[in-house]
Specification:
This protein has 154 residues and is of the alpha+beta class. The protein has 5 helices and 7 strands; from the N terminus they run αβαβαβββββαα.
Length: 154
């Protein structure tokens, strides 16, 4: 799998800091689409969903602090932090929620978990169909573009 050096290095670093996570975690969004083979795709950062318990253990170890709750109209997390040491920024989102078109906040909690080996690391992503459904829920222009890329994969 050819992911490009910045993404490859960032994913290996992410897996290394999550190796002792007690709960399930996933890489989502553009990085997950790239892992599934979506091309061509721009990956600006790596988004990780994890539990609040794992976030409370991980953030101090990485020397990062949760950011104050944002006021994004559609996305929120119980805890959110950015890790800037890898080549690409890693955004950790604990208990991630989406405000859907009906105005109701619902959790974004993948049900599937596919292990993918990248170099010496194991990364977890939602299965392709579930990732696609997640992009449908997000509904932004960039998500529609990611859906089209996923749909091209055989």
């Amino acid at each position: 799998m050819s992911l490009g050096e910045p993404l490859h290095e960032t994913l290996v670093a992410t897996a290394s800091v999550l190796h002792d996570a007690r709960d399930r975690w996933w890489v989502i969004a553009s990085a997950a689409a790239a892992i599934h083979g979506a091309r061509p795709i721009t990956v600006a950062d790596v988004n990780v969903i994890l539990s609040a318990d794992d976030a409370r253990r991980l953030f101090p170890r990485l020397g990062i602090a949760p950011l104050p709750p944002g006021d994004h109209p559609r996305f929120r997390s119980a805890m959110f932090a950015r890790w800037t040491r890898p080549p690409l920024v890693v955004e950790f989102m604990a208990d991630f929620w989406l405000r859907e078109g009906d105005g109701i906040w619902r959790p974004v909690a993948p049900q599937t978990r596919e292990a993918v080996t990248i170099g010496p690391a194991t990364i977890f992503v939602p299965e392709r169909a579930e990732l696609r459904a997640m992009f449908v829920r997000f509904g932004r222009a960039k998500d529609r573009a990611r859906i089209a890329l996923l749909d091209r994969i055989g």
